[in-house]
Design brief:
With 83 residues, the chain is an alpha+beta fold. Strand 1 (60-64) and strand 2 form a beta hairpin. It has helices at residues 2-18, 25-31, 54-57; strands at 60-64, 67-71.
Length: 83
């Protein structure tokens, strides 16, 4: 479940941050468990590493089963301009 949802979220994140640059489907599948496929369950007071499961730090519309869900991340993303 985390990989299936995470892959969709990481695609959304990557498109949001880097625009039209695309990676391979296998790259996104691995990133569904966080950058590098590490599947970390780690968060700090001011940041969440990209190697942490995307369900922790990114939100957006996802498809799960036959449903469309607006996923809300478990932790609020820290914007560098907020510091």
């Amino acid at each position: 479940m985390c990989r299936e949802i995470g892959e969709q979220l990481y695609r959304s994140y990557h498109h949001h941050e880097y625009g039209a640059t695309e990676k391979s489907d296998s790259w996104y599948r691995l990133a569904g468990l966080g950058a590098g496929g590490y599947a970390l369950a780690l968060a700090f007071a001011r940041s969440v590493p990209k190697s942490t499961l995307p369900v922790f730090w990114w939100g957006g519309e996802i498809q799960y089963g036959r449903r469309t869900i607006h996923w809300k991340p478990l932790f609020r993303r820290q914007d560098p301009t907020d510091l």
